[in-house]
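Posting for a labmate who doesn't have an account.
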Amino acid sequence: MYLLPENIIDSVTHLKKDILHGKMVSLDVDETLIVLGISALSNPAAKMALENLKYLRDCEVHLTHIPTPGDEAGWRKLMVNLTCDPEYSSKSLFISG
């Protein structure tokens, strides 16, 4: 059993790519947290992970690139201390979700 069910990830990816015509189909941190919350309803491991997210508060997180808006929002909600290198995560400066 996966922490995040493949069928939910596939469904969100389908929504982002085929329905909303987004270029970035991978889940960002914010979307991943939502999928984790859904998964916690039926997966004890996901429930445990969800309940322990509070322990990430004030942890140091460093990214080797500038986070996308969805990643930044997710990290901010987790209340971690985020730093990053001044590199974009993509060659495109304009990323549509």
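Reply:
Got it, the structure tokens are right above this. Helices lie at 6-19, 29-39, 44-52, 69-77.
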